Amino acid sequence: LNSKLSRSEGRRIPLNIAVSNPTIDEILKAAEDLGLNPVFEDDKRYPRNWWMVKGRVIVDKKNYTKAKVLRMIAIKIREYRGLGIK
Fold it and tell me: How far is the C-alpha of 47 from the C-alpha of 33, rounded, in Å?
């Protein structure tokens, strides 16, 4: 979701939808508002950045693809920040 990352660094959505440095709270709130039943798990790491402990958010996909869920969460965070889609 982070627009500061490249695709090879772990960004999974297009740059025009991604948000700058999304927080766990923003991701949890967006997923909750979308009805995705988010669960935060701390002490999880992205394999390419194994030294950075950030955690992860698990959500119900509800018949959506992983990419669609990520896009919906990013768009919701952009709404919270008052940013539209470019």
Answer: 29
H-state helical runs in 4-83: 24-33, 66-80
Buried b (16+ CB within 10 A) or exposed e, 20-35: eebeeebbbbbbeebe
pLDDT category at 86 given cuts 50, 70, 90 is low
Strand pairing partners for 19?
2
Amino acid at 51: W
Question: Tens digit of pLDDT for each residue in 4-59?
Answer: 999 988 889 999 999 999 999 999 999 999 999 999 998 777 777 777 777 889 99
DSSP type of residue 53:
-
φ, ψ of residue 39 in degrees (nearest 5): -135, 125
Residue reference for tokens 């297009």: 14
* CA–CA dist 76, 55 (Å, integer): 20
